[in-house]
Amino acid sequence: MSAVLDAVATVSMWVVLVAVVISIVSQVGLFASAVVELRRIRLRDRHQLWRRMLSSPLAPKITILVPAYNEELSIGEATTQLLSLTYPNLEVVVVNDGSRDDTMGQLQRTFSLSPVLPVFRKVVDTKPVRQLYRSPEDERLVVVDKDNGGKADALNAALNVASGDLVCAIDADTIVAPDALQQMVAPFLSSRRTVAVGGTIRLVNNATWRMNRVDVLHAPRKPIVGAQAVEYARSFLVGRLAWNPIGGNIIISGAFGVFRRGALIDVGGYEHASIGEDMELIVRLRRAAYERGEPAIVEFTPDPVAFTEAPESIRTLARQRNRWFRGLLDVLVRHRRMMLNPQYGTAGMLSLPYFLVVEALAPVMEIVGLLTLAVLVGGGWLPPDDLIPLAVAYLASIAASYLVLILDDLVFSTYQSTRDRLLLSLHVLFEQLVFRPMTTVWRLWGLQLFLRGRTEWGAQQRRGFTTPAHSAT
Amino acid sequence: MTAGLQTELFIAVAAAAGMAVVFVLLGLSLDLARWRAKRRTDRILGLLAQVLLGDEASAGRAAERLGRHRPSTVIPLVQRLAADLTGDAVERLRSLASSSALDRHIRARVTSRRWRRRAQGAGLANLLPDGDPARTILLDDPHPLVRARGAESLAAADAGACADRLVDLLDDDVDAGKFAAQGALIHAGSLAVDALARYLETGSDDGIRWALEVAANTPDPDLIPGIRRHLDGPDPDRRAIATRAVAIWTDGTQELRDRLDDHDPNVRAAAADAVALAGAEELAAHVGRLLGDRSWVVRERAGRSLAAMGPAGVMTLRVHLDDDDAYARDMARQVLDTLGVAHRDVGART
CB-CB: which of A43, A388, A402 is closest to B116? Predict the structure, then answer.
């Protein structure tokens, strides 16, 4: 019996160690790549005047696609902010995706909407459109009222009426930085192979506002939000930027991304049946380009271009993370043909295997190993001293998070006060020791739902961006 | 818990706390470094302001003090100013560049083997003396960003002298080059008209659209024949741009009437805009018919066009309050509401 328990303990220890080491090694590799890429981008940006060039009325037209479902609290303000962006050639298409609250009424009152003949070229299939509205107050605004069909369907409906050469897909609760579009358009002007560009998203749960804009970001006070802020910094600054130099980006955040409209239409728009429609779309765009023999560029720009509200309740967060994980699994299954297939270049040989091992398998291995170890230590079958290598591995992971925050401070000085830095340093520990195991449990929940074929989204509670209240912080 | 484990736990916690402290201390040292850099930048910007705005003596002293700073610090700040300056201010910066040997550094950057340094030099090319060959070689640079920056910089200097080469950039493989060339040609205005007119006659299919956009923003009658060639071409984008452009300098009534009936909604919308731009009141009735167009964009543009036309437009809008088409009635009512013109209520919106 003792020999069996020894073997179980050893295997569990190795499983956890391997999972943590995979995570650390990948983080270190990605960190090094991100640092090099960041330096390249900063040097490039220092010597160019894209922002000035793109203030020209001849700048390529961008249509912002805003799917809205039960967003009555934030839709009016969010749309007004989009219309006040400094980009000179802009169109905004808001899609009310069969909301059950007063989203449509809010839009009608705020922009004095008038119904117009719903005449447009249906390039991608969607649920029936009830009515199209335009605003006499701002000719750049189009509102589509349609039957509920999910986010992907709403984005496709917006794509049908969009007239810009480029389209920008955002969530209704995303706040966009005033010059964000200028930054996002620049890579499209640099190469015609660029099909999608994403940027860094920051959390806005604790910010100072001025003139309806985010003025200063403060480190979130609540640990659950703080942990997400640390996670976002690591995910965007390292997890996405690092893939730029090797051309392996396969994720653009659904909260804010710019695409070439023609490329989107060529692949049939967003996939209705997918849970992680943002990642699925990028993988499909890249796959189609590889199959045509003209590899596409998906670029990530590290500058913070948009802000969003992080879930503050465990329940909402759990649903979000479970959905994200199911989305990842869905993409890995749908595009399994690309996995380790040289025809699909970096995306097939590196990115997808990375997501399979590091994002999908390692957390599951980690939690199973940890639980087994806890049982063994609790039962007295494993001496606690044997857990030292594990502690070292976790410390290394904490160090990696601090490194990312230092890099962020060095380049973007996101949080500017000592108080914020102190708070963040605590959030790093919380993220590593409490938040990470929690997300792993939610992923396991997502895994079992995925295996049972569940594809629904779940609702998220919005507080709405009531700026005066935020200004007080 | 054994003593050994307690010690190990203590070490782990201490290590994590140590990392947190290092993080906070590094942040503080970054703040200090930023504060110093800002102070240095403010000092240099102050000296540059004296160079640009001060009398000759104080400008001379400021230039001398600027010479003591490292070029790598001064150049990015000069670059920030250079692109937006014209006239005397540019001349002053030029004389500063030559007196403080900045021009030597600029030339070295323009001819560097590293494209990023060339891009930086391109941003300052307008500070080199007129006719300096280093200015024009940027337009033939192998890197698109350098070509684009070179074009942009030339827009602030002698775009007219390089108009032919700027026009060639409209065929650039990279959109950034085309885009910068457009800006430079618009800046050059009448100095680039001959080159642009020639291009409108003979340019490539891809480049013509970009050239037409420049022409639409360059008010010169010599461009009209070139623009007219594209009024009834096969490409609706080009027809729309040409329609708007031609309205600026001709009455072009017949041409505009044809475009108001174009099968492409964007061209019809552009024609409605153009009618107001040309002040062609005789086309008011024609534009009025577009109030019931199938495309909202066309109806809305037609409404705006009539609103901008004055009494003739208002008269037409009033006529359409009784239109058979509900959308035409609605658009006419909306525009009259916006103008604050009294009219009888035609009922609820459809």
Answer: A43
Residue range A356-410, pLDDT digits in tens: 988 888 777 777 777 877 887 777 777 777 777 778 778 888 888 898 899 888 8
User: How far is Cα A396 from Cα A367, in angstroms, rounded to an integer?
Assistant: 18
- Inter-chain contact B4–A409, Cβ cutoff 8 Å? no
Q: Which of A43, A50, A52, A53 to mutate to test the interface with B (most CBs of B within 10 A)?
A: A53
For chain A, percent of residues with pLDDT exceeding 70 = 91
Q: Which residue from A59, A60, A117 is facing B294, i.e. has the nearest CB? A: A117
Strand pairing report for A90-97 and A62-68: parallel
Please give the structure tokens belonging to residue B57. 């003596």
Confidence of residue B250 (pLDDT cuts 50, 70, 90): low
- pTM score: 0.79
Asked if B58 and B99 touch (Cβ cutoff 8 Å), the reply is: no
The Cβ of residue B3 has, within 10 Å, a number of other Cβ atoms equal to 7
Q: Which of A166-170, A211-215, A369-373 has the lowest mean pLDDT?
A: A211-215
Given a cut of 80, is residue B211 above it in pLDDT?
yes
Cβ-based contacts of A132 with chain B (< 8 Å): 296
Report chain A residues whose CB lies below 8 A from the CB of B8: 385, 388, 391
Q: For B334, which residue in chain A has the nearest alpha carbon?
A: A136
Between CA A440 and CA A321 the distance in angstroms is: 9
Whether the predicted pLDDT of A464 surpasses 60? no
CB atoms A115 and B217 under 8 Å: no
If DSSP codes are grouped into helix, strand and coil, which group holds residue B262?
coil
Q: If DSSP states are collapsed to H, E and C, what string results for A60-92?
A: CCEEEEEEECCCCCCHHHHHHHHHCCCCCCEEE
Q: Nearest-5° angle of CA A200, CA A206, CA A207?
A: 75
Query: Do residue B123 and residue A49 have CB atoms under 8 angstroms apart?
Result: yes
Mutate to test the interface with A, among B179, B317, B329 (most CBs of A within 10 A): B179
**What residues of B are in contact with residue A52 (Cβ under 8 Å)?**
83, 152
Query: Of A207-216, A223-232, A445-454, which one has max mean pLDDT?
Result: A223-232
Q: Could you please report the per-residue DSSP string of A98-164?
A: S-SSSHHHHHHHHHT-EEE-------S--SPEEEEEEETTEEEEEEEEE----HHHHHHHHHHH--S
Contact A431, A231 (CB under 8 A): yes
